[in-house]
Amino acid sequence: MTQETGGFAAFNLNPNILAAVAATGYEEPSAIQHQSIPIIMAGHDMIGQAQTGTGKTAAFALPILHRIDPAKREPQALILAPTRELALQVATAFETYAKQMPGVTVVAVYGGAPMGPQLKAIRNGAQIVVATPGRLCDHLRRDEKVLATVNHLVLDEADEMLKLGFMDDLEVIFKALPATRQTVLFSATLPQSIRAIAERHLRDPQHVKIQTKTQTVTAIEQAHLLVHADQKTSAVLSLLEVEDFDALIMFVRTKQATLDLASALEAKGYKAAALNGDIAQNQRERVIDSLKDGRLDIVVATDVAARGLDVPRITHVFNVDMPYDPESYVHRIGRTGRAGREGRALLLVTPRERRMLQVIERVTGQKVAEVRLPDAQAVLDARIKKLTNSLTPLVADAESTHGDLLDRLIADIGCSPRALAAALLRKATNGQALTLAAIERDRPLVPNSAPRERSERSGDRPDRGDRERRAPVPLAEGRARCRTALGARDGIAAKNLLGAILNEGGLAREAIGRIQVRDSFSLVELPEVGLESLLAKLKDTRVAGKQLKLRRYRED
Ligand code: AMP
């Protein structure tokens, strides 16, 4: 990977931070990052109006990391988040961006986990504390000086914090912080209650808001599909089965994602290629030419790489990752419906990104209808239709070219014409599932209904394991996969693993991701933050009478 930092270099961030950003594969700062990073770097207080999906976490994490002193082993920045889930996400983002800053540590502080290790991590000198307000107040009750050295405060999703009733806790926290600190407030909306907080607790704040002009998008049929982040590839593969497309462009956020998705598509037989900023200009042109003339049907691109792309064949745009703002959404979907033709745009939305969807609908003045994943019957119908379409033109004259051969094969093999035709079909379709039962069996683990925010994570159905082997599921951000040598043959079911980890590890249920039980081993997804101490805690845990011995698992 090249260490290109694109537009990020202009910020004059600490080179170690820039290097970590380059390693994530981000190509350009998002709009909120463009505006916020210089303000926060300069030490001003700030009010940012932005929702999840705009890149707001990096918008404050990068400049805050720039401003802390890694040599000082004491809390310097406090980030408050409304939920444990967001706190973990933010903590993981900080760890990612601080990867090349030796000595910088991050602690996530939230309810449902024991207080002792959290307090210890703070006292041991974690510079970045990411906390939910309720649990942080519990800590303050034990040690009112715990935040005395914090000189940067970020309130993330402030409106959500107030909705969840954290107002009083926030006041307690403000009092425990030095008055000279820098304060940054991010909120999707700015109701009066938030303005009042800003008035009381921010000093001369600068305002940042992403300008959203109304945009028109005509001739493009838009739809969205709710899906969990780790199921996107499977969802894309299912959608491709039933969408009648000519050429298609898929948008993702990072260079790595372009490569991963393009190779998943190629593996399924699609003519697909990646397009990102690391690919040399002449190679990029070759990709676009191939898409134009049909040597390629699918291009998986980042926004930067697809700039200006004009290929009339494009009938579909898949927004696999959410765009940062409505403008880039409109820009992306404008890649289809060229020259007055009709186009279709699909947007994958994870539960946390629903707000962004509403913003897009408001700005474009159009409802983006919800669609569900195709069921097995729809997939079967689409496959048979494709087969019919490919055979129909051959039927007209194949008998004259291959009829005699057919007679001979029937005689040589000694079978009926129906048996021979069936054998030829099996060969021609190359093992593709063409019955409902076979499709059901092969189906990737994608629910056919909208995912709820915290549901169906554990996958505590042991029979899922074998199916997943064929379609390995990418890990969700902030999670690590761990392995135990206990599996179905040891009498283990997912619920036993879940119970043991919940009880002994002191984790909340939502903190535990997918559990896959295979015959001779099992895989469990756990939060990356605090993983080592969790594994240490589970060291002596036994399940079904045997030692669990959970270890971090690396696929490659
Ligand atoms: P957020 O709005 O902070 O929840 O970020 C949404 C997603 O965008 C996260 O998965 C980030 O890793 C990703 N992201 C943030 N900034 C960039 C960027 N400049 N380029 C590409 N991806 C980004």
How would you summarize this macromolecular structure in one to three sentences?
By secondary structure, the chain is α/β, with parallel strands linked by helices. Helix content is 42%, strand content 15%.
- Tally of separate helices: 20
Q: Which runs of at least 5 residues are low in confidence (pLDDT < 50)?
A: 445-472
Helix content: 40-55%
User: How many whole angstroms does the radius of gyration measure?
Assistant: 27 Å
Looking at how many chains there are and whether they match, the oligomeric state comes to single chain
Q: In CATH terms, what is the fold-level topology of the largest domain?
A: Rossmann fold
**What is the count of structural domains?**
4
CATH C-level category of the largest domain:
Alpha Beta
Architecture of the largest domain, according to CATH?
A: 3-Layer(aba) Sandwich
Q: Please report the total strand number as a whole number.
A: 20
The CATH fourth-level homologous superfamily of the largest domain: P-loop containing nucleotide triphosphate hydrolases
Note the beta-strand portion: 15-25%
- Write out the distinct hetero groups bound to the structure: adenosine monophosphate
The shape is: globular
Q: Describe the sheet with the most strands.
A: 7 strands, parallel
Q: Tell me, rounded to a whole number, the average pLDDT.
A: 87
- CA-to-CA gap between the ends? 18 Å
Given the helix and strand composition, which structural class is it? alpha/beta
Give the spatial strand order of the biggest sheet. 3-4-2-5-6-1-7
